Each structure stands twice: as structure tokens, then as C-alpha cells.
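Reproducibility note. Readers wishing to regenerate the assembly model reported in the main text can use the exact inputs given here. Chain order matters: entities are listed in the order in which they were concatenated for prediction.
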Amino acid sequence: MLWYKAWLDTRWRFLLGLGLLLVFACGTVMSFPTVQELVSSVSPSAISGSEDLRQEFEESVELMRTFRGYVWLQWFQQNFSSLLTIFAALLGSGSPLVKSGSGALFSLALPVSRGRWIAARAGAGLAELLVLALVPNVAFAALAPFVGEQLSVGEPLVYGACSFVGASVLFAVAVFISSLVNDVWRPLLLTCVVAVAIGAVGLALPEGHGLFTAMAGGKYFEDGSLPWIDLLVSAAVTAGLLYAAAANVARRDF
Amino acid sequence: MIIETADVRKTYGNVEALAGLALRVPRGAICGLLGRNGAGKTTTIKVLRGMVRPTSGDARVFGLKADDSQASVEIRSRTAFVSEDKDLYAGMTVGALVRFTAAFYPKWRADLASTYLEQFDLRSDATINSLSRGMRTKLALLLALSTGAELLILDEPMSGLDPAATEDILQILIKQAARDGTTVLFSSHQLAHVEQVADHIAIVDRGRVVIDGALDDIRASYCRIQLVFDGQAPEATFKSHGVINVRRQGRVLSVLSHGGHEGVVAEARSLAPASVDVHPVALKEIFLEAVGVEN
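Running the prediction on these inputs yields the following C-alpha cells for the assembly.
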């Protein structure tokens, strides 16, 4: 029943996220022929600027010449990471016990420990996040033939799994902030601020490391290996934040 | 005792919500919890429900410590609660909320739930946010009454109900307490409701229980002695034990007494009044006296 309640609390956010991600994923696939035309018409020499910028542009253009490279660069490294971050923050925002006027007192009156409430909400939220991280990516394999391409189902799912582990950190940040405040919007906004800060910190880390780098699964794209250290650190941070959120709720007065 | 608290204190910053609360509610009692706004009634209930942890002191329900997380779950499994704002899950339908709540209580009384759904005119397919405040109150009471709980804790249960519905609910409470031996603790500002159903009361003021016990005993221990004089009533100071206040108005001298009025009556007769009458005191007067408000 706690799972059912958690589902009722988050279903619209989840369904909105699933719908939008599916639409964007399909849109990304169907845009491939147009992008191909664009890429073939662009000459790298037309780019003015530093050598680094020119090199980066050339690498991007080169990647987008193949469907696999286009999907990774356009979707997993850019749009999907950003969208999943937003939906992770949205799914984690708003504790079942502290949002006033939504039956929080009724929940607290039931013979259920506060820890179980938070565990059910976190479990349901992570399950929804996993679906958001995996299901839209099936579209790439399913729709690839429509643009005359092929892509295995497995590869987008691996990127999706990496994105899930990374986005779980931001989900847990939202759950943690929600254990301290009484509304949905502050956790959502603060989590987005934290995401920007994590992105900025990532720029200072050695190349190939950082939360968003791990989410994009670039290492897997390049050499087929997974960024295990980053993924394990992310999972540990997620667990720590969820534990801290449960401890916060356990000692709070309502 | 089902509920027993000793020297319970709760502070929020500089505000002392409970200042040494000592409350005792015996098994099977219907206990009215009275007090002015901000006296500490809701905080008392929240402490008993484990929603608020006391700063110090001991609060027990069924002999279990209310501030212990595990014990609190056990307490809540044997207790039903209706909050002051009847905070329910707005998006659920009535039927879904009844099924949801039933899943948490092994002694759930499906027969009572069906009876009250019909009696309160609650449609199973109506969503909670479409219900009026009065109907939400009825639904909250239905859920509480159907849990099969040994203890009902109701915070302002009649708020939002019309007089007819209030009367229905009061009768249901009395019936349930009599039939199942359920203990009821309810807070209310409506002294008439308390007098109608409660057999025990506890009056809370400034975070402390100032009067508690069986309502009949409390009423019997208070009386107003009215002395009528032929002329202007004299200014008098009573030395007898138990005199709470003395009021003089024209030919009448009125003495409020607590804990045995024989001595006061004897002292009153020595003033040679034209008549001396002893009147029972209404709960309202006891309440106002207890919370220090001039009637």
C-alpha cells in the first residue's frame, strides 16, 4: 500500500517525464537525415576561433557522420543528461510526510515507521527513474530502420543505466532537501542549482571523470568499458543521502 | 491507565508549548481535553501520537513510550486518530481511501465502514477533494471508527459539522465506547459536546493540566453559594477552605467554592443573609475559572 501511495504521489511527474523523453528520443532519431545533410554541407575551415574549438567542432562533426556517434553525442551526452537530471529532481522533490495539506498528518497517524515511508517513496522514485532512463532509449533501436540505420538495443540501454546511476545522485539530493523543507518547489530548484554546481566541479576534474561524464557513458562509447569508479561513488553518495534523509525525517517534529 | 504522562515539557525555540503536562486517562473513559487556543491540546495529542518528541518528561500510551520509534508504531496500530484539519489524501476516492486505510489495521471493521458510509451519505466514487469540509470530517471519523482501535484520539472532531451531524457523531462515539470499551480522548472548544459525551475531562492551560478527573466528581466538587441580603450585600472575606472567588453585586453575594462547601455555607450564614442557596456549577464556569478568565 505504501508503494501504491508513492505511485499516486509521483505518477503524473513520471508519466510526463516518460512522454517527453519518448517524444524527444523519437525526434532525435527522425532528425538524423536532416542533421546528416547539414553535417555534409559544413566545412570545418569555415569555423573561426581557437585551435581547440576548431578541433572540438571537427570531432563533433566526425561523430555525427554515423548514427551511433550522432545518438551518443546529441542524445546521451547532451539532451538526455539534462532532461533526466530535471526529472530526477522532480521525482525526488516533496517528501510524503512533510508536504502540508496533502494528507501528511494522515500518513503519520498510520502504524508505519517514518523510515518505511521514506524507503517506499525513494524505492518507487528510483524505480520510476530507472524506467525513464531505459525505456525511451529503446526508441533508438526500434526507430533506426526508419532512417535507414541499425543500432543494437543493448548499447543505448548501457548508456541509460549509466545515466540512471548518475541521476540517482540528484534524485537523492532532492529527497534529502525535501526532508528539510515543507514544499515541492524549493527541493526542485535547489537540486537544479546543485546539478549546475556538480557540472561546474566536473570541469575541474581530470578528463573522463565527473557525474555528467559518467552519466553520458563516454568511456563505453569509446572503448566499451564502464566508468566503474564514478558509478560506484555515485551509488555510495545516493545511498548516503537517502540514509541522511531518512534520519532527518525520523528526528523531525510534525 | 491507557494514557499517562508525567512532567512532559516541549519547547519550540523560546515558546514553551507544554510545561510539565501530567495527564491520566483511564481505560474505557471518554475524556474531553479542554483548553484555550494555544493551551497545548494539539501538542499533547501530537506527543501521544509520536509526531512530536517531548523536550523532557515521560509520555506513555498502553504503557509504551510514545517517543520511541518502534513503540510509537505499536501505539499507532492500536490507536485511531483524526487531525484537526482532517488532512486526507486529496487525490484518492472515498472507496480507495477506505481500502488503503483498512490494509494497515488487522482489526479493521469492514461492517462498520459500510454502515457509516451509508449513514454519512458518502459515495465511494467521490474524490476527497470534491468533498465539503463537513463530509471530509465524516470520512475521517468513519476511518477512525472502523479501525477497531482500542483508543480514539480526536482533535476537534466536530469542527465543520452541522448540529445534526454533530449529534449523530456524538451518539456514535458514545455507542462505540459503550459497546467495544474503546477509550476516547478528544479535544474540543464546544463545552456542550464535552458535557454531553465525556465522563472524564482534562483542562489544559499554558501547557499544564490544571484540572482532570471524572466529570461528575469535578462538578460535584464545585458549587456556587448565593447569598441574598435585604439591603446592599456587605463586603465580605471568607476564611473557609475552598473559596475560589467572591463576587458582590447589589443585594447578592456569590461565592464559588471547590472541595466541600459546608464550611463556606456556615460562614455565609454568620453574615445574616435573607437567603442562602447552593447551586451546581456548569462546566463552562469551572473551565473559565481554571483558565483564569473572568466570567
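We highlight two features of this model. Chain A has a mean pLDDT of 89. Chain A has one domain: 2-30+67-251.
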